[in-house]
Amino acid sequence: MAAPVLETENLVKIYGRGDTRFDALKGINLEIGKGESVAVVGKSGSGKSTLMHLLALLDGPTHGVVALEGRPTGDLSAKELNELRNSAFGFVFQQFFLTPNQSVLENVTLPLKIAGVPAAERKRRGLEALEQLEMADKADNKATDLSGGQKQRVVIARALINNPSVIFADEPTGNLDSATSKVVEDILFGLNRDKGITLVVVTHDEDLAQRCGRQIYLVDGEVVPNLPKSTSGVGGERGGQPGTRPASSTTGPLQVTEPTTGAIVTLSEADAAEIARAAQEPPRAGRHAAPSTTDQPGATA
Amino acid sequence: MKFIDLLRTAIGNTFRSKARTVLTVIAIFIGAFTLTLTSGIGTGVNDYIDKTVAAFGNDNALFVQKVSEQSTPGSNEGDGPTEYNPDEADVRLGFGSVSGLTDSDIDKIEKIDGVGSVDPMYLVTPKYLESASGKKFKLSLGSPPEADGLQLESGKAPERAKDEILLPASWVEPLGLGSNQDAVGKSVKIAIGNAMDQERTFTAKVSGVSQASLAGPSDNPIPSAGLNKKLYDYQVSGSPKKVPNSYFTATATVDDMSKVGAIKSELSDEHMQGRTVEDQLGMFRAVINGIVWILNSFAIIALLAAGFGIVNTLLMSVQERTREIGLMKALGMSGGKVFGLFSLEAIFIGFLGSAIGAAVAVAAGSILSGVLSNGLLSSLPGLSLFLFNPVNIAAIILSVMFIAFLAGTIPAMRAARQDPITALRYE
Ligand SMILES: Nc1ncnc2c1ncn2[C@@H]1O[C@H](COP(=O)(O)OP(=O)(O)O)[C@@H](O)[C@H]1O
Ligand SMILES: [Mg+2]
Fold this sequence. Notes:
A: Rossmann fold, 9 helices, B: alpha+beta, 2 domains, 4-stranded antiparallel sheet, elongated, binds adenosine-5'-diphosphate, binds magnesium ion
């Protein structure tokens, strides 16, 4: 495995206190190597997004450490955290979060604008990023005038624009039909492969998870080893090229090891059944269901 | 984020929900419009008063009059009759007399610290003025020094040594003198009686025609100093016993205006009253300023109401843009910059409303001023009801922008505090 870009040590996140106390993450230890593509898989409410937010330095843990390139981030000031997120990370969300009245180009260059990059350079780099995603001709369109797949490409262009070392994608295809999903996935894995950008994908789509080099399975805020799946087979045959993918040290399902003890975590049969259900959860079920909630007028598209 | 990008983004955002922005801008517009107009009236009228003060001559002139003791409530002498003083000089009028200033009073005024020269004014009460055609008009005369500051329609001020008179424009036609220009050089007669009630006429040449003014002295014909003295001398002649000199008022020139207060109190110790031109116009100015401030306070109330409009508009905006704010914060924008962004939106709305309001008010006021000076207010040449001072207008716009900023702090703070995660989880 390449040198870890992100590591966590005993990461705990507790929401609320007393009667409303909820332990969303219960001591997560993991390492994500440079250039890896990692899927965080689990059913709704298992703590995937919470874990991603902690890894992306959007939130602080209740206990434990998140280290970026070997440097613990707990002592960083709000300003340093802002700058780190702005320069090192790219974000793709299930919802597009495009600003409706602004042009595609303006949306794509938002991270550069926040970083204080001059307008001319923003435009140049923005067009470059759109070019990569074959969206350059839509640069002056309003973000709202695009189809779902086009919007997600714009979002990926925005995630790319600052040459991030890690792209976090939370349910990136949750809102797209399967054909478009495949295109978006190809783009993301292409970036991972060609540019060596580390990819952290949060999903409950087992097919997408299998395209990643490694899967981290979450159940109720804890990491569990994945279960071999009888139906979907091993690895990412659906268009993926396992051999060319960096990072993954195994071609099959990854066994999650307890970093401190090195022991392989074993599961009870009940847990195993639970995980299996989680893994089979349909892609557009549950809280992320209705596409109509994502295109509210007046709000971000 | 650079300031220029912040500003551009803020301006772009204000036009996102146009209807809401327009309504808020209208509310501010009304306040700023009213404030600009009332401030214009204040400037216009005060400017006119200043011009009028200039027309009175020196602003360091103190007009001194005798105060009759009975009419001075609160004087130390107490109530009851005042003892007769044979030296006290009365100015004789057709219907009686008033206490006048004596030569010794003039001396006293001259000796007060800070007073330069003192010019007594002779009270001349002619019987009538007779036109060339023999028509007679009641006549009271203005005082010669007043002629200097007046705006003239034609001719010039009467010369001290000549028997000349300055006529108000409104007298020219009744006297049958033709136009203002024709009148200059023509003669009129002034009849006056002496102590024995013997009447005599003096001939005076019209030296010029003066413009009317709101508070100026030009409602009366003004003789030259020489003619005035001649008329006075005849008026007090013919008495069997020598009448002591008596003056209705005297003009004291004050060298050092900072001493005016002290001079006035010394005068009042001597039963005299001194008033500057400013004092004489003070009441008028106070009334105008009072009206202006009442109107201003309405405008300020309107602006405060508009401030709540801004709070409301931006709170709705923050609500609607929860996810956008969350995204910007996730992408590394600091809370301070988010606060700045919403504050700038508030300030820009304030700027739009106040700049448009002020511009429309200036246009409307200038047009109205023009119409009024040719119509309703044509009898007051030199008065433009609205005068717009760039400094005042800038001050109005800046204050409105500041009010807008204050109003914007509440929503801006709410936006700045927003947690990106909550915003991004929002579904
Ligand atoms: N701010 C919060 N306060 C209380 N509970 C929260 C909060 N955010 C998330 N949770 C809870 O933590 C759990 C994990 O949430 P999340 O990480 O979003 O799950 P996932 O992304 O796997 O669906 C859920 O049960 C959720 O209700
Ligand atoms: Mg989630």
